[in-house]
Write a structure and sequence with these properties.
13% of the residues lie in helices and 30% in strands. The chain has 205 residues and is an alpha+beta fold. The protein has one domain.
């Protein structure tokens, strides 16, 4: 029987580790997301209950949303330098469109794809700069729109996400884009369907 060398064992371990890392919360490719569809007709608000996570590359950050069946949610955003933003248990709701598209509105949540400084403006223009709020974000899933009349979404002191279904049947939450060309959006994937106790249901001593 031929013995396996230590080098081959190490190589196999590295290969296994790489495969395992790819299988754990692998981000969808842009094509996967653009080829996604609205949720099925059987979709219910409770299908979103659970914990969702997104990981943003530049600047690096981890975004977690915990959605509960009682209509409350919490956002927790952290980065590698120790920054933490955590909302109280705010309200979330679902918006449906005639073409089957679905959005989820999260009051008090922030859009962190362009970094902390932009997120902390909460959709408002910097002090001293006039004009309307700088909160218009591009929705890449609106079809049949004239190129000069893309649908833009206002997100003042709230976060709005698209609910999409990828080819595997999995639901994902997709950010609006900060720009229509090129799009600057990414997705959050569900990591847990276990609901944490609601503060409305927790008795106080």
């Amino acid at each position: 029987m031929k013995r396996i060398s230590c080098f081959n064992v190490v190589l196999l371990l590295l290969l296994f580790t790489a495969i395992a890392a790819c299988c754990w919360m692998t981000p969808k490719s842009i094509k996967d997301i653009m080829d996604s569809e609205p949720p099925p007709a059987t979709f219910r608000e409770t299908d979103l209950v659970g914990t969702w996570e997104g990981h943003y590359g530049i600047p690096w950050g981890a975004d977690r949303l915990i959605l509960r069946e009682d209509g409350t949610f919490k956002q927790i955003y952290t980065d590698e330098k120790g920054y933490v933003y955590e909302t109280p248990w705010n309200k979330w709701r679902v918006e449906r469109f005639p073409d089957g598209r679905v959005r989820v509105h999260l009051e008090g949540a922030r859009w962190y794809l362009d970094g902390i400084e932009f997120a902390e403006l909460e959709g408002l223009r910097p002090a001293g700069i006039g004009g309307p709020p700088a909160s218009d974000f591009y929705d890449p899933f609106v079809e049949g729109q004239d190129p000069w009349q893309e649908q833009w979404v206002e997100m003042v002191r709230k976060l709005v996400l698209n609910v999409r279904r990828v080819s595997s049947g999995e639901l994902i939450l997709v950010h609006m884009s900060g720009s229509s060309d090129p799009p600057s959006w990414t997705e959050l994937v569900r990591v847990s369907t276990i609901e944490t106790p609601s503060p409305l249901q927790t008795s106080t001593p």
